[in-house]
Structure formats: structure tokens, C-alpha cells
Amino acid sequence: MFEHKILFADNDPDFLDTRAEFLEQAGYRVLKAYTLEQARQLLETAYVHLAILDIRMENEDDEKDISGLTLAKDPVFRTIPKIILTGYPSYQAVREALGPALDGLPPAADFLAKQEGPEALIQAVERAFKEHVRINQDLEIRWGENPAPVLVSRIEAELPAKDLPGRIEEVEDLLRKLFYDFEQVSLGRTFLTLPEQQTFLEALAYPRGTTGPLPAREFIVLCGRPQAVLQQERARSAVPQEVRPFFPRPEQRAETLHYAALACSLERAILEQLSPFDDFYWQHSDTEVAAALDVLLGQVLASWHRRGQFQADRPFLSLWQEGLQEHGEHLVPRKIQDCLKCICEESLTAGVGRVEYSPNRLTFHLAGGPTTLPNPQVFLGEKYLSVGKPVLCGPIHGRPDVHRLLVDPRSQAWLLDLSWAGVGPLVRDFAVLENSIRFDLLEEADPLEWLKLERRLLQAKSLEEPIPAEDLAPSLQKATRAIGQVRSWAARTLGDAGHLYLFALLYEALERIARYELGVRHAPREVRLYVHILLSTAVLGEALDRPLPGPAGENFWLDEENREVWVEGRRIPLTEQEFKVLRYMYHRRGKLCRKRAIVEEALGEHYEDSILERDRLISLMSRLREKIEPSPGGKKYLLTVRGAGYKLDF
Amino acid sequence: MPINFLLISRPEDTGWPRILEQALSPLGQVETVSEQDAAERLVQYECGAVVIIDAAAVEEVPALVSRLRDRCPGSRIIVATASPTWQRARDAFQAGATDYIRKSWDSQRLLAAIKGHVLQKTGTEKH
Q1: Opening angle at CA A496, ends A492 and A497, nearest 5
Q2: Are B123 and A104 within 8 A, CB to CB?
């Protein structure tokens, strides 16, 4: 039976006991606090629906004592409705209690003078329950696979056992507040539980007073710590309008002392037809998987990424770390090193061969013999904190992985969570999704196949180039095609990102490695996954050790054979005329190339010293500059020597 | 951006309204309306005006506050009175008033009492 729990705090024991008795006779459960300290402690530890607080809790004779009112104003307890009680009422006290506080919410729901008698108190309590506590006592909750203790443990994994009973009551009340206008709610599948103290559930709610075969309303319910839920709400308000239909839309909100919940609708979705993408991936054909990824990449992320702008003055690693720091994370080299060592030590227990650790190298002793690769931790070194190619930054989802994606049988897709939404390098979204396909969906357990896959994925010279998959193991073929699709959408957004894309994959994988729990024994399956991640980062490291595609260390490289130029890892397509001019200047690196020489020797045409000819050359050079310079309007490589000609410097 | 203030007062009262007008002149304009026209006028301001009720000019303050709150749930409604009591203050707040202030004749004090509400959110949120 629903129990109305009230904290009653008054430093006059006789008054408190007498009035509490009245309330108990009226059916309320009263927790009594005779001191301010007791009141605070009970508010913190015992879950109550309403608090009645005397103003003068410390000294009845001191007119400056407003300790009860001060407690009522404490933001920690703002979600608990309060009735202020005093033997010395004044209009200023009423104003303090019922007037707005800074966040717009009055500290108290009501104000009573002690002289008003017990009946007035009971009426005020009844009114407060009806108007402010708003708990639907008649709601029939069908918990399904999510009984209250399970929900609590998902939101607060580290909760001390003594607090559990109170929290169970609280989470039940949370649902009774959330579904205030309904007569039944049935909780269904859990779609997602995040380490950031929140969980997403399926719910069917039946409105009050409906009879007959009326359809239930479908909701995705987000339950979590208030801060986490608030962050989701804030992030949603920053999502571009056209993308909002792809995210849960909050319809109702409820909050208790420790928890908050949102009941959200999902546009154009029939809840029972939805599957998490990881299930959908296994049950559907490549074509259907591709269609779902197209929705995610082509509609949701593409609209989001349209607002991207180049950031020219920041190193990529700094931008990456900054994004992580906003979520309290960081790629700390020392921590990564410790995790890598432990994974290497545990590798033998997983039956995937031994991995040998050294500060610069990792040696994988696989069935086919040892393979030595760079230790990925070196890519967090200071060397990588220098400014490189400008990075396309803007609004990103931050974690569009396979667990956060819901799909229906028509391959329509929705994203569940916005806790990582913010501003950062756009490449992050693609790297997260690619790695999620690679690590979360792969069931292949043979490390030699992993190695083959990793090397295959790095064979392509650009993001657009198809990745051949035919000779790979069947489970790898599906993943390879999906990854190819992610990369092709990445190419449309990022251009030829070159090394930047590989760095993003590497850093995202290192984030996964940083989540390895030190000092805990892992099941072989978990260790196998970490060894795969390790192998992947090491192979990426191998690719990053030799800059693409020219000789090591070169930012500017002319590929005579394919008649193209590579600048800072980007392949630049050139017209025949542009290539001729650039090739001429490339072989005269750092030297002045006079206008006449460019026209006559590079292009093989006759040079006339006329305004028309000069304009033609200026226009050609300006087109070239637009193509090869990493930042718009920049003159890093192609320099003008006023009145004489041009110089290519790299 | 200048704020619109809607003073609910009797047209024949000029003393305090003039002081109020002077006090609020740095923030915006004060328009005086009768109790009967108040709700319509507030709606014409798209509920964006800050309402100041002169309690002496109104029959039933809580009833008026409720009416205005029903029409414009998010509006800011301040009740000003020369003789505040805790019961009247409670009634005003329970009806939905944002604040209940003493009718000062000092324009600086009046400005200080009202200025905060211009910056704040509404006082209508429930716990």
C-alpha cells in the first residue's frame, strides 16, 4: 500500500509530538526531527515525500533564527515540497518561503502559523500532496524485466546496501510521478544502460479513464541521476531542428531527490518493432544493414555535420582530448601504459597467443609467427601535440556506436543517447561508428583473421576506395562492407582526411583500452576483445609510422605515376595543366620560378608579356593555391615573389 | 530591451503610480489599466508584460491573480500593498503571485524590489 511519508521538524518536542499524532491519525507516516541536524540527516537518508519545517529550529526566542527556512532553501533538497511552520508569522517570512528563489522555484509549497491549529495543518498537507508531491498512487506498474531494485542498481551501481530500500521506494515514486495521468504502465525491454548513471527502457502507458481496446501510448523512458538527465535535455535543445525526429522527444518529466526521468516519444516508430542495431545487424542482410547505416550517416549525422568549420590552429590530439575532458575523461599516457601492460599479461589466458610489451613495440605471438608492431601509446607523445592539418570541427554526436542505434524492419534508424553530444572534430563520429562495428559486432575469434582484417582496412589509399572483402572470413566480410560504407560517408563530409582518420580510429580505440579495469580479472571473452583492440591500434600505429603515401616525413609529395599530389596526407586531384605547373615547381623546390619559365617550360606554350597572359597565370596559381593549401587563403606552400614569379616551398 | 509594466490601479490614483513610473523608467514603460481590463491587456502584450497590482485598487487580490495566471501561466505578477500581512501575502502567493511587496514611496527601493523579477524566471513552477 502506498505510504505518505512526511518529515516533521520542530525543536519544541511537545508541539511536534502532538501535531505528529494528528498527522499519523490522518494516515500519514511521520518521521520526527527535534533538531536541525536530525532534520538534515533524515532529508538526506530517509526518502520522504514532504517536509514540514519550523523556522526557528535552533532558538525559539531568537527572531534572527531562520535555520528552518535556510534548510528549506538548500538546493540539494529542492525536489522535496516543504511546508514552513512558525509561531511568529510575518509577511517577510511568507515572502522568503513562498517567493521565487533564484531558479524560479519557491523554497516552500505552503506557509502555516502554528496558531492555525492541527486541522489547518492536515489540510495544508493534503493540498501539498495533491498539488506538489503529485504521486499517482493508483498506478499499476508492471515491472517486467526491470524490477525496482534492478533499475536502482543500473543507475547507482555503487550504492551502499543500507540505502537500497529507500531508493527502491524512490524509483517507484519516480514512475508514479512520471505517469501521473495514467492508470497502468508496463515496462519492457532495456535498450541501453550507460555508465553515466542512466538507463533507457521501453514503456507502454495506458491513460486514465480509458476503457476498451484503446492503444497504449508508447514511450522510451530515460531514468537516471538528475544531472545526467538534465544533460540529455540540454543536449537535445542544441540538436539541429531537422535532426530532432531521430532522437527521443521528452513528453513528461519527473524528479525525486536522487533520480530524474523523462518519458519520451519516438517519431514515426512502433516501439515493439525496434531492435538495437547490434541485434538487427545479425538478423538482417547486408543491404538492410547498409540502408540503416545510410539513415544514420546520410540523414542524422550529415545534417549535424553540415555546421563544421576548419580549425587551423589546434593540434588534433588536443582537440580530441578536449572533447574527452568535457566528459571527465582523458587519454592519460601513464594509464594507457598500465592498461596495455595488463592486457599483454592477460593475453595468454584468452587463448589468442602471447603479446609481449615493450615501451615502443608490441610483439604478437600469433599462430603464424611473431608480428612486431609499434606500441600505440607513443602516439600520445608530445610530438603529436604540434599543429598539423586543419581539423574540421563542429557539432557532433560524440558516441554514435551500435548500442545507441535503434532500427526498425524498414531500416529506419534512431539514436538514443545524447550524453556525448557537443562540439568536436567531426571525424570522431565516424571513428566511433567504425570501431564499434569492428569491435562490438565482430564474432571472429582467430587473431590471424583480425590481423588480416586490420591490414585490409588500411590498404585503401583514400576513404572512398572500396575495400575488397571477398577473401575474408564470412563474418569479417559483413563488417568490412559496413566499415566501407562508414568511410564513404566520412569521405563526403571530411574530404580525404588521410592520417587524421587513422589517428581518430587510434585514439578512439585507446579510449576503449583506457576503460580496461585494472586489478580486476577478466573473462577470456573480454580479454580477447581487448587483444583485438590492441592489435588494431598497433596496426594503425604501423600505418601512421609511415606517412601516407610518400616517403616518410614528407608533407608534400608528387606522385608522378598517378599524376596527383599529396599534401599532408590529403590526395589532391589536379587538372592536366595544374599538374604540369606543380611538377615543374616541385622539381625546383624553394627556387624562384619566373612567369615566363612556368608558361614556356612547364606548359610548353609561348609566353607573351601582356596583362591577359599575367591574369591567366594569376588565375591558374590561385586555383592551385585553393587546392593545395591546407587552410583557406593560406600561403604555406605556394608563395608569390612579387614582380618576379612563384616559389613552391615545402 | 525595454520592459512593459502593466500597473493595475484606479485611474484617479496618481500619487504612487507616478512614483512607480519614475522608479521603473530605467527599465521600461508603465501603463496603467483597470482591474477589468487587465487580463485582456496582458494578452495583448503576449503575456510578456510584468504585472504590478496595487492591492488597494483591487477588490479581491487572490481572485485577480488567479485570473491573470490562468490567462498567462508564465507571467510575472507582483502585488504591492501599503499594509502587508502574512495571511494576505500567503493568499497572494497561493493564487500565483510572483512576489508580494510593501508599497514603498522611495523610488530607489521600489526599483530594487522589482528589478530582480525582470531578470528572473516565473514563480509558477511546482515542486
Answers
A1: 105
A2: yes
d(Cα B85, Cα A343) in Å, to the nearest integer? Answer: 72
**A113·B122 Cβ contact <8 A:** no
Interface A–B counts its CB contacts (< 8 A) at: 62
Going from the C-alpha of A589 to that of each of A593, A647, A649, the distances in angstroms are 9, 7, 6
Helix, coil or strand: residue A288: helix
Q: Scanning the structure block, which residue is given the C-alpha cell 611473431? A: A370
| Residue of chain B whose alpha carbon sits nearest to that of A99 | B99
- Residues of chain B contacting residue A180, judged by C-beta atoms under 8 Å apart: none
Q: Say if CB A256 and CB A173 are below 8 A apart.
A: yes
From chain B, the residues in CB contact with A132 under 8 A are 126-127
Q: What is the pLDDT of residues A610-629, one digit of tens each?
A: 888 888 888 899 889 888 88
Which residues, other chains included, contact A592 with Cβ-Cβ below 8 Å and sequence gap of 6+? A641, A644, A645, A646, A647
Residue A383's identity, in one-letter code, is K
Contact B20, B110 (CB under 8 A): yes
Of A191, A26, A29, nearest in space to A8 by CA: A29
Q: Single out the residue of A218, A217, A221 nearest to residue A200, CA to CA.
A: A221
pTM (2 d.p.):
0.78
The residue type found at B98 is T
What confidence tens digit (pLDDT) does each residue in A178-211 have? 999 999 999 999 999 998 789 999 999 999 876 6
Please report the DSSP string for A558-603 in residue order.
EETTTTEEEETTEEE---HHHHHHHHHHHTTTTSEEEHHHIIIIIS
Contacts of A215 (CB under 8 A, 6+ apart): none
Grid cell for residue B76:
510575472
* Collapsed DSSP state (helix, strand, coil) of residue B81: strand
**Minimal CA–CA distance to A190: which of A179, A203, A202?**
A202
Amino acid symbol at A346: E
Contacts of A100 in chain B (CB under 8 A): 98-99, 117, 120-123
Whether A104 and B126 lie within 8 Å, measured CB to CB: no
Nearest-5° Cα angle at A533, A519 to A512: 60
Q: Using CA atoms, how far apart are residues A463 and A491, in angstroms rounded to an integer?
A: 5
Contact A182, A136 (CB under 8 A): yes
Q: How far, in Å, are A95, A193, A197, A302, A490 from residue A151 at the CA level?
A: 40, 10, 10, 35, 37
Q: 10 Å Cβ neighbour count for A383?
A: 9
pLDDT value of position A569: 63
Give the confidence band of A546 by pLDDT, cuts at 50, 70, 90.
low
Assess contact for A67 and A58: CB atoms under 8 A: yes
Query: Is the separation of the CB atoms in A177 and A139 below 8 Å?
Result: no
Query: Residue A119: CB partners within 8 Å, gap ≥ 6?
Result: none
**Residue whose C-alpha cell reads 586531384 in the numeric block:** A573
Query: Are the CB atoms for A422 and A329 separated by under 8 Å?
Result: no
- Cell numbers of A561, please? 605515376
Residue A463: half-sphere exposure toward Cβ, Cα within 13 Å: 25
End-to-end CA distance of chain A: 79
Cell output for A128: 501539498
**Contact check, Cβ <8 Å, A90/B86:** yes
Q: Is residue A571's pLDDT more than 60?
A: yes
Instruction: Write out pLDDT tens, residues A10-69.
Output: 999 999 999 999 999 999 999 999 999 999 999 998 889 999 999 999 988 888 899 999
> CB of A247 within 8 A of CB of A414?
yes
A333-346 vs A524-545: helix crossing angle, rounded to 10: 120
Amino acid at A644: A
For residue A238, what is its C-alpha cell? Answer: 542544441
| Distance of alpha carbon A11 from alpha carbon A34, whole angstroms | 5
Structure confidence at residue A554 as a pLDDT band (50, 70, 90): low
